[in-house]
Specification:
The protein contains 5 helices and 5 strands; from the N terminus they run E-H-E-H-E-H-E-H-E-H. With 141 residues, the protein is of the alpha/beta class.
Length: 141
């Protein structure tokens, strides 16, 4: 099935099953996004991206949980931004706790946003609206 080019393709990296399900439940019915199959570690993000053979299939936006096993969000962001083919991708880091150090490091490495995890459907929709506003004008192809 071909992807709808008007939708933003989003790859979520989240190791917590409940948080992944919240994301899908709260955002799965939005018509402006296409949720790609989620992954649970930063290593899986890199493997997923490396397995894509044409630029049009790359996600427009990657949302990384900061606290993942094997590679956390910052480590994954660093790896994404160091790979030429992926370096222009829009990356958002989100975490239960977002302090000044995480915000500064994320921005320094090229994250477009560093956000606190929402706890309500409205919060997820507001976060996604902000992400799409900030990331909306950039194309990866």
């Amino acid at each position: 099935m071909a992807s709808d080019l008007s939708k933003k393709k989003i790859l979520l990296a989240e190791d917590d099953g409940d948080d992944r399900q919240f994301f899908v439940d709260f955002l799965g019915d939005r018509t402006d996004i296409e949720l790609l199959p989620s992954v649970t570690t930063g290593v899986e993000v890199i493997d997923y991206l490396s397995g894509i053979s044409w630029p049009e299939a790359l996600p427009n936006i990657i949302i990384l949980d900061q606290n993942m096993p094997k590679m956390n969000g910052i480590e994954t962001l660093r790896s994404i931004k160091s790979t030429t083919w992926f370096s222009r991708m829009e990356v958002v880091i989100y975490s239960t706790y977002v302090g000044r150090e995480l915000i500064d490091e994320g921005r320094k490495l090229g994250a477009v946003l560093v956000k606190s995890k929402p706890v309500t459907k409205e919060g997820y929709n507001e976060m996604m609206d902000e992400i799409l506003t900030v990331c909306g004008s950039i194309s990866v192809g």
